[in-house]
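#structure-requests
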Amino acid sequence: MKNIHKQFLLLNIIFILFFLSACDNSKEGEYDYDVIIRGGLIYDGSGNEPYINDIGIIDDTISLINQLDSAIAIKDIDANGLAVAPGFINMLSWATTSLIEDGRAMSDIKQGVTLEIMGEGSSMGPMNDSMKTDALNKQGNIKYDIEWTTLNEYLEYIVKKGISPNVASYIGATTVRIHEIGYEDRKATDEEIQRMQDLVRQAMQDGALGVGSSLIYTPANFADTDELIALVNAAAEYDGKYISHIRSEGDRLEEAVQELIKISSITGAPAEIYHIKAAGKKNWHKLENILNMIEFARASGLRISANMYPYMAGATGLDATMPPWVQEGGHNVWVKNLKDIDIRKKVSREMKDHETTWENFFSLTGPKNILLLGFKNPKLQHLTGKTLSEVSILRETDATETAMNLVIEDDSRVNAAFFLMSEDNIRKKIRRSWISFGSDASAIANEGVFLNSNQHPRAYGNFSKVLSRYVRENGDIPLSEAIRRMTSLPAFNTGIRGRGLLKKNYYADIVIFDPNTISDKATYEKPHQYSEGMKHVFINGIQVLEDGDHTGALPGRVVRGPGWIGWPNNSM
């Protein structure tokens, strides 16, 4: 009996040890989800009516959308009374250098942007040695070493450095032209076209979304339609898209839209218009016509779309006020030309000409409607926030002379806001179902080097303004439709997979906000003001914004297009 008792005790000890071991090993399975978002009003990105439900997140993925009352998570988010949506996609981001300086992307994260799409004409690669030298010389307040050559290497560089949002990019048509031709105003040779196509093909294999052009600027406007068709054809081999700041947004607006439609028709590539607009009061009436042109093309089977920002002013450099010929040869040649008395007289005459063949922002706006946003020369920074007209009066020089002098003194294109559009036209565009949204701005913080210059308020309020003014206040579109246009529509137009919807097995890019309070605060006078009303933001399952405050998390990844040789994965 003693032996039986000992054996019984031994078995009990073994059982207890086994049980304790099992309990210890079960700690990893103690939670059902990493995050549960409970009771929110879910706008899934499809445009359908919202519904109340819970969302469970495991790792970087939406695991389940269902009632999860009995489930437990490492982190619980109470979304009762709040809107829950896919992360917003910024179709036109200039966060290329701001993310190098500050990877938090504060101004966009606080609006719910989880993906920055770059590449409007210029991309951060491919770069040759002379392009790197030029880029280093043009640096303003943000200084950095160029540790990459290809576009893909740049994207991987900023992700390795640490960024909050995801990033994707088109390859710039301007960039590949400079890479092979430089700043000359001439037709590309067959050999140059072939080399440019090869650069596009390599970028597409690396995950670029397609080809982006910006055709009012030098040297982009030296490229003819055939050159663009050749580049887009190369991208189309990998299901790439074409996206363009079209050749004119003003006096030759219809012709410019026709060129984009032609390129799409010939190449078979979907095409999108950057920041669609009718610029200059004399051209405002043209908007209805081009909207109809696009809808006719769409009805015929072409995939034509556009994006926009909801502001009456655009923003670019003073190079947009001067003729292309004076800028041929690049920035240094342009500045040198502007110091020549005879050239200055000719440039001044053309700037005042209302019938130029180039996109003349000086005549479209007038100096009273050109607001100077920033300078890299500290001696000029006191002029920030003044109009070109005001500086002209202050200096007692003609406005055209003043513009040329500012370019010379700042040794830059001098950023400015140009008041070109009408509010009625903004509302017409808001109501079109095929138009998405892009800030055409950096993703910045209201601190540090970013305060050395003013910004267009769209940097801080582009998406929030749509949700506050045009959804809540004006009722131009319902909230579900606005969210679709910020999420699944741009994801579809770019060919991005696994994002843009709240859907099982999609990446957990999720925003949670109060639709009753979300609003933009930035103005032209005081632009460095964050939007309000965005409560929580998750990117790849990691919380980046918590109760309106940035967590410091940097989970951003490279999001790649359908030509990437690494498919079926969608990211690094």
